[in-house]
Design a protein that fits this description.
Layout (H helix, E strand, L loop, with lengths): L9 E5 L3 H10 L5 E6 L12 E4 L5 H8 L4 E4 L6 H9 L3 E2 L3 H8 L1 H10 L7 E4 L2 H5 L7 E5 L9 E4 L13 E5 L3 E11 L5 E3 L3 E5 L6 E6 L5 H18 L3 E10 L4 E7 L9 H4 L4 H9 L13 E7 L6 E6 L1 H4 L5 E5 L4 E2 L4 E8 L3 H14 L1 E4 L2
Parallel strand pairs: 1-2, 1-4, 2-3, 4-5
Antiparallel strand pairs: 6-9, 7-8, 7-9, 10-11, 10-12, 10-14, 12-13, 13-16, 14-15, 16-20, 17-19, 17-21, 18-20
Helix pairs in contact: 1-9, 2-3, 3-4
C-alpha cells in the first residue's frame, strides 16, 4: 500500500477555487500531493497545487482522464460530472464523497425526498417543472424557488413575495418552499471516515445578505438553547449516516419561532459556514476533510475561543480588476485574520475573501466584525 505522505500517492481535487486553496494550505502540513482540475486558467489553486490541469470538471471524458492515475478523488464544488466519478469508482478508484451521494445532493428535489424517506425534518415543499406550474398553483406566498440543479452560493434561489413576482421566476425544474417563520439559520459541519467515525463541529449561526442571499456574517458558537444545539448535532449525524457518506458535510438548518429545527439543504464539501474553524477550532474543516477521505483519525473539533466570520463580497456595482480596500487597517487589530482568495477579477457579490475575528467575548467579536464590514471592501479599480 502506498504511503499517503509520498509524492507517488496522488489526490485528485475537482475544483480550484477558494475552498481548494484552503484545503491545499492544510495539505502541505501532511506532505500530501494534490492535483487540481479547474476550467479557469486563473483559478486560485493554480500556483499552489502540485499539479494543475485546466479542464471542464462537468465533462465526462475530462474528469475520467483526470482521475485515472489518482489514488483518491474528491471535490470542492458539487456541480461536477458524477457519472465519470461513478465509472472511476467501478474501476476501483476511491471517490469521496461517493458518486451516488453526489448525484443525490446535486438535485435539490432528490435531497428533499431523501429527508422525507428517512424522517428527517425539513421545510414543506413542492416540485415543479417550470413557471407554468407556479402560475397555476394555489401556493401561499411568500415562497422560495430553488433550481433543482446547478444552484450554489445563493445563485439559483429566488424569493417570490406575491404573484406579481412570477415574471422573474425560473422556468426550469425547481423546488418550491413556503417561507418558514424563521428565528435563525444554523449550520453544523460534520465529518465521517471510512471506519464510520463521526465528529461534528460546534453549531454556528448565519446572517445572510438580503440581496445576494449569501452568508454575510457567521457566529460561533450559535446563541441557542442547549436542547436545540443537541438536536442539531443529532440531525447532522443522522443525515451523514443515512447517506453512508465519507467526507465532510455541511448541514444547513432552519430554526423557526416555535423552536422547530429542520434541515434546509446540505453541501458534501468544505463550506462557507466552516471557514472560521481555521483560527477558531483545534482542527479546521479543511484538515478534517482530508482526514476523513484518507481514513485517518478525525481531529478534535472543540472551539478554542468564540469566532465571527465576515465574508468579503464584491461590491454591488463592481466589475473588473479587484481593488481591496481597508486591508492594512485590519492588521492593526488583535485576533483578526484576513483570508484573500487570489481572484484577480471582481464581480457583484462575488466571494473575494473572508475575515475571521476571534475573541474571548463573542459580543466583542461581533462589534469588531460590524466595523470591519463597513471598512473593508472589494471594488473594481478605476
Amino acid at each position: 500500500m502506498k504511503n499517503i505522505h509520498n509524492s507517488s500517492f496522488k489526490i485528485g481535487l475537482l475544483g480550484g477555487g477558494q475552498l481548494g486553496r484552503m484545503t491545499l494550505q492544510e495539505a502541505y502540513n501532511l506532505n500530501l500531493h494534490i492535483c487540481v482540475l479547474d476550467p479557469s486558467a486563473e483559478a486560485p489553486c493554480k500556483d499552489l497545487a502540485h499539479e494543475f490541469v485546466q479542464g471542464d470538471f462537468k465533462d465526462f471524458d475530462t474528469v475520467y482522464a483526470f482521475g485515472k492515475d489518482k489514488d483518491v478523488i474528491t471535490i470542492e464544488f458539487e456541480d461536477v460530472n458524477a457519472d465519470a466519478l461513478a465509472q472511476l469508482e467501478e474501476e476501483g478508484k476511491k471517490v469521496f464523497p461517493q458518486a451516488g451521494v453526489l448525484k443525490l445532493i446535486q438535485d435539490k428535489g432528490l435531497q428533499k425526498q431523501f429527508y422525507e424517506k428517512h424522517q428527517i425534518p425539513t421545510s414543506p415543499y413542492h416540485l415543479i417543472n417550470g413557471k407554468a406550474d407556479l402560475e397555476n398553483s394555489e401556493l401561499q406566498f411568500p415562497i422560495f424557488q430553488k433550481l433543482r440543479t446547478s444552484g450554489y452560493d445563493g445563485y439559483g434561489v429566488q424569493s417570490l413575495k406575491s404573484k406579481a413576482d412570477l415574471e422573474k421566476a425560473f422556468d426550469a425544474p425547481s423546488v418550491i418552499e413556503e417561507a418558514v417563520d424563521l428565528d435563525k439559520e444554523l449550520s453544523v459541519i460534520v465529518a465521517r471516515n471510512k471506519k464510520g467515525e463521526i465528529k461534528h463541529f460546534p453549531l454556528v449561526e448565519m446572517e445572510f445578505n438580503p440581496i445576494a442571499n449569501m452568508v454575510e456574517f457567521l457566529f460561533s458558537p450559535a446563541s441557542v438553547q442547549k436542547e436545540v444545539e443537541e438536536k442539531a448535532y443529532r440531525l447532522a449525524e443522522k443525515v451523514i449516516e443515512k447517506l453512508d457518506m465519507v467526507g465532510i458535510l455541511a448541514v444547513e438548518m432552519f430554526l423557526d419561532k416555535k423552536g422547530n429545527l429542520m434541515v434546509n439543504e446540505v453541501a458534501p464539501r468544505a463550506h462557507n459556514s466552516g471557514h472560521h474553524t481555521i483560527e477558531g477550532n483545534i482542527t479546521s474543516q479543511f484538515a478534517q476533510h482530508l482526514r476523513s477521505i484518507l481514513n485517518l483519525p478525525l481531529g478534535d473539533t472543540k472551539l478554542i475561543q468564540p469566532a465571527v466570520m465576515v465574508n468579503l463580497l464584491g461590491e454591488e456595482d463592481a466589475k473588473g480588476e479587484a481593488d481591496y480596500r481597508g486591508m492594512t487597517a485590519l492588521l492593526t487589530e488583535s485576533g483578526v485574520y484576513p483570508h484573500l482568495y487570489g481572484k484577480a477579477m471582481v464581480k457583484p457579490f462575488r466571494k473575494m475573501g473572508h475575515v475571521t475575528i476571534v475573541n474571548p467575548s463573542l459580543e466583542e467579536a461581533k462589534k469588531l466584525a460590524k466595523k470591519i464590514k463597513s471598512s473593508a471592501t472589494v471594488s473594481a479599480k478605476k
